[in-house]
Amino acid sequence: MPVLKITPDLAWKARLAGLLYLVIIISGLGAELGLRGPLIDFSDADATAAAILAAPGQFRLAIAADLVMALSDAGLAILLYLVFRTMAPGLALSAMVFRLIQTVLIAASLMALLTAWLVLTHADGLADAPALALVFLDLHAHGYDLGLVFFGMNSLIMGLLVWRSGVFAKVFGAGLAIAGLVYLIGSGLRLFAPEWSPVFAPAYALTILAETAFCLRLLLQRRADRADFAKPDFNVS
């Protein structure tokens, strides 16, 4: 596999990809942990319904943050393909497709959140509205994990591309590959063995670390490689 040759144009695309990656990390973690998470208790439908109805702006903001994340994810998938296609077009295309599938599934899962909101605010007289809303909230969570199955595959492929790039340190590729395994295992447990999911949850810290590190590396592309762009080529062969 040939190594990646970073040109000024590709360096600019890498920096833009890093910026979108940062938006994804902030909006994704903000929506799940900062905004939506505190409102939802899957063991108590009534408490969850009361919390959401008491903070409608917070719940809607979580949906908006997820939408921003999905839009940024689509852009990032395209940019990373443009960066790596000169090195390995087949693998780069595969990574983009897997990431776009994840993006579509996560965006589609937002309909479950909207449905939960509609059930709670437009179901006057429906005695089991909180329980029904909780089902849709759980459906969203499962849809998110289904999307992460495809993102896990994307991360494994990206890990291979970064490892063999010759531009990025191999530790970034290893980190992305490990993140991919965590996503695949975590989503598999969530979907097929949910009783084990809480035990595995701390492993997701590895994904945050690996993706944040690669995000920062992309953002620093100019500083890392500027000397290479200006270096004269004395090879006359």
UniProtKB/TrEMBL annotation:
Listed transmembrane segments: 12-31, 61-84, 96-120, 146-164, 171-193, 199-220
A Pfam family: DUF4386
Domain of life: Bacteria
Keywords (A to Z) from UniProt: Membrane, Transmembrane, Transmembrane helix
Keyword match Ribonucleoprotein: no
Name listed for the protein in its UniProt record: DUF4386 domain-containing protein
Organism this protein belongs to: Salinihabitans flavidus
